[in-house]
């Protein structure tokens, strides 16, 4: 259980993007309290700064997924995180009021094209993770994403998950691609009720991860890779047991169900990284250009990672 000292530390000088989640998920404040804090995301701190960086054409950094003019063959370390899709995803995950984005959805429909084949922005492209963010961001901004969701049903692999490399011939699912696809499908279901096809696709995708206890290879039972235990913020596209368990927390709350027993081992790995003072440390963010830093350096106590870890453990313990 999260201690008073940890909660006080989380709230100390906290940006509204973090504070409202602590109020809702750990303090269980009345809705009017955390919603009042959430409303400040667009007018204060991190959220306000990102909104002010938007281009006149509705994009950020002049591009859809990569900044305009970005050379993917260049020597820059890591991919940049400043273009439209990543900025929109960040603003949405922070809880920014869609009204603060004004005509952004329409402007992107007019002006933004994917790096892949110049496809129209809201139509999505061929990458599962990109398309999942497009679904979630579109729902947030009032775009009709029904066809985008149908794409996930059509492109679900035989083993129940998804793989962004399907276009290159991949037939086995990826932990990363599957989790990101599930996030988009869950957002669609929360917002619209979903379709029978999308709900079945979500359940099959969840089963793909649950069969593997969220971190094991089905073939050997061994951890699929070291990254399952790498806890970092911002989350970006990368899979970890913390990222996955937080998804299953949200899915269970939406479904009104108890925690799935097959998540237990993953929760144990999350708990194992909790420090004696009840916090979690930052593993180090993904390399690449950012608009500005939003969390601490590697090895330091992270308020964002601690929020995720604490609310997963509370959900599990109270389930």
Order of helices and strands: HHHHHHHHHHHHH
Number of strands: 0
Shape: globular
> What class do helices, strands and sheet pairing give?
mainly alpha
Largest sheet: number of strands, sense, barrel closure: none
Q: What is the rounded distance between the termini?
A: 13 Å
- Proportion of beta-strand residues: under 5%
Distinct helical segment count = 13
Mean pLDDT: 96
Radius of gyration: 19 Å
Helix content: 40-55%
User: What low-confidence regions span 5 or more consecutive residues with pLDDT below 50?
Assistant: none
Description:
It contains 13 helices and no strands. With 319 residues, it is an all-alpha fold. The longest helix is centred in the middle third of the chain and has 18 residues, at 175-192. The radius of gyration is 19 Å and the shape is globular.
Structure, briefly:
With 319 residues, the chain is mostly helical. It has helices at residues 4-11, 16-25, 31-38, 45-51, 84-94, 104-111, 128-140, 146-154, 175-192, 196-210, 241-255, 264-272, 303-318.
List the helices and strands and how they pair.
Elements: H1 4-11, H2 16-25, H3 31-38, H4 45-51, H5 84-94, H6 104-111, H7 128-140, H8 146-154, H9 175-192, H10 196-210, H11 241-255, H12 264-272, H13 303-318
Comma- or semicolon-separated keywords:
319 residues, mainly alpha, 13 helices, 46% helix, 0% strand
